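Fold it.
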Amino acid sequence: MTPARPAGADPVTGPGTASVTRALPVPADVAWRALTDARRHTAWVPMTRVRTDGPPRLGTRVVAVSGPGARRGWPGLVDRMVVTRYVPPGDAPGVAVFTKRGPLLLGSSTVTVLATSPTTCRVTWSEHVPLAGPLPGALTARLTAPVLGAMLRVVLRRAAGDLTTR
């Protein structure tokens, strides 16, 4: 099992971390509000339904269920998360960390939004997801990273399309 990281710790990077960066033609605060609001993720994350206990803020709980019939209410892979860092963009990039609480998925998901001009921004979404169980977390994170990288490319493409057509 991967050791717990302190709440609000800096995001994990390196081997076993999937990370996708995309420039968006919207202001940083617009991208921030949309991308950190997990209630919007059902529209962007393939085969996933999402439930939260409210708007994004420190301590918000999120439960995502993924699988072929998840959007129709069927069971699937459960991803329980808590927002452990929520710092909107300003003079520095905005950073939101969703810490995964199992039962199978551990680690974190991090959304970083950096203003590149008053009307544009750069978003980086990273996932470091070791699996609970007998195998070492570093190994399982390396196994999940390619799948998560593909998923993140889809998510940011869909989010960009959604945000630029509004």
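The longest helix spans residues 137-165.
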